[in-house]
Protein: Tryptophan--tRNA ligase
Organism: Sporolactobacillus inulinus
Amino acid sequence: MAKIFSGVQPTSIPTLGNYLGAMHNFVTLQEGNDCIYCIVDEHAITVPQDPKEIQKNIRNLAALYLAMGIDPQKSILFIQSEVPCHAQLGWIMQCTSYMGELERMTQFKDKSKGKKAIPAGLLTYPPLMAADILLYQTELVPVGADQKQHMELTRDLAERFNNKYGDVFTIPEPYIPPVGARIMSLQEPTKKMSKSDTNRKQRSSHWIRKKRSSRKLNLQLPMMKPLSVMTATQSRESRTCSISSRSAPAVPLMR
């Protein structure tokens, strides 16, 4: 049984790229593995966000996780900001990383291109991602091909920390599916499909909503009750934080 961790940002509407590249595998991997799936809302604020919009997106993403088949009885589903250990270990990982390696990250270069004021969070995003993964002694991380460089940095940071302080963290391996790992834009096939793309026609969501409304079908997920509070406890065996749910949220069904 492998320990698996992965997360999705609650920004905009997930694309076909998100689904095929990572989320589709979440359901399959929860069979026979110890899976932890996260709504990474702290990563979302590396760029400006509307507070009301991000709260709505968190609820919608939680509903999507459950609707596509994530079973709270088999997997742990939680909100990143509800577990302070993520930010705490994120700072330690920042102190373990070097400016040069963070500035070489392709996603940082792409997202900061042309900006006069670059949020520091864009630069320090990878150490927080490393903390998310290392916190749970993760062995396998289902990600899209665009996250391969971040996974390599995560492994480097874990090894660097272990070499200095002892055998603390498990060195994780990326799980990149052979099909669907990198879905390209619908209108610009040289570009990767992205939720943050300003051209909504390059993502699936625009056409899906248009097609859905034309058929006059009500496919909107009902709003969930607030997710149960997840508590962080110190595990002596794993020497890291683990999470448990006091009650599993009810699974909303699509009408």
User: Anything to note?
Assistant: Strands lie at 3-8, 34-39, 75-79, 140-142, 173-175, 230-235, 240-245. The chain has nine helices and seven strands. The longest helix spans residues 148-165.
